Amino acid sequence: MNTLWQDAQAFLENTKNKTVLVIHDYDVDGITGGLVLAHTLRRLGAKPITTTKVGRGASLTTEHLGHQPDVDAVIITDQCPKSYDQYTQFRTRYPKTPLMILDHHKVTEYDDALFVHPELVFDTPGYKYCSAKLIYELCNSVRDCEDLSWLAAAGILGDANAPHFQEFLEEVCEYQDIEIPEDWYDAKFAVIAETIDCCSAASDEELLLYVDKLKTQETLKGAIALGNPCQHVKDELDKYVALGTTLATQEGPVVWLPVESEYGIAGWATTILSFQHRNRLFAGYRHQVDGTSINLRWQNTPIHLGDIIREVTPQFNGRGGGHKPAAGGWVGKGHFEEFQEAFSKAVQDALKNTEQP
Ligand SMILES: [Mn+2]
Q: Is CATH 3.90.1640.30 what the domain over 3-225 is classified as, yes or no?
């Protein structure tokens, strides 16, 4: 292991008797990673406080940070603080507070923070890793916390990274004394990922309520006993997936999939269908009041979807980005059809380029 990893271990070990603010993302990976951190910090004798901000927009704003107490250290996870002007706002609120960032998105440089990324530690590209697993590895290297591995397993499923962590997921099953399922999404710990996704798709309030309850559970059994307060969202998702590609239209290399639900299930439905048809590029979309949100998924993709949507969306009053096989974006009202055309063309061009030696 390199010195970065040792510095990260030292950061955790130095938290004894200190108050540590953990700012985590609000998806499955962000939440489960944040909870592994919180439980481990408590075991190390620290006083952890966790916070996340739900909804569209950045969490490291003056407004959100203004509600947080003064602390001895901060850990930010599963988000890239240097996007937009978040980092300036963070340092305005916490000018000198020691900061560690545990993330698998863009590799970013900091001269006043410890930045830990799978690419820098394990030489693994970010999209093949996830924050919850990175955090678990770090925590478990400082203090035995195998009893929390179910949280990392749920995070892995949340970021659709099961193919990269077969062995680890099998170890989690063994530890929990549960059978290894044929499909990881039938595993017991998948219930936690599913419940977070259901609550998140229902509303911000439902999600925060569930996270508060999940925080109190350090065992998988206890977490499962909480139940799923938003089972109705899962029922609607299942209906959508069953309809599947009958709703979609294929244009060139892109399968366009309209998802009109009162719940935010477009990305989720698109992910499931993309695993059922691994060689197809799915673009799930949902029209909203001021524009259209787009979710791209292609499991066996030869091209970088995040790069393409980042390039194309600004021409249509939007923005976008993400990983190679999974990305997303937004285009302004009235621009969707032009965007469809431009995106299809950009994909075709990128495909042509990959064919050349
Ligand atoms: Mn993540």
A: yes
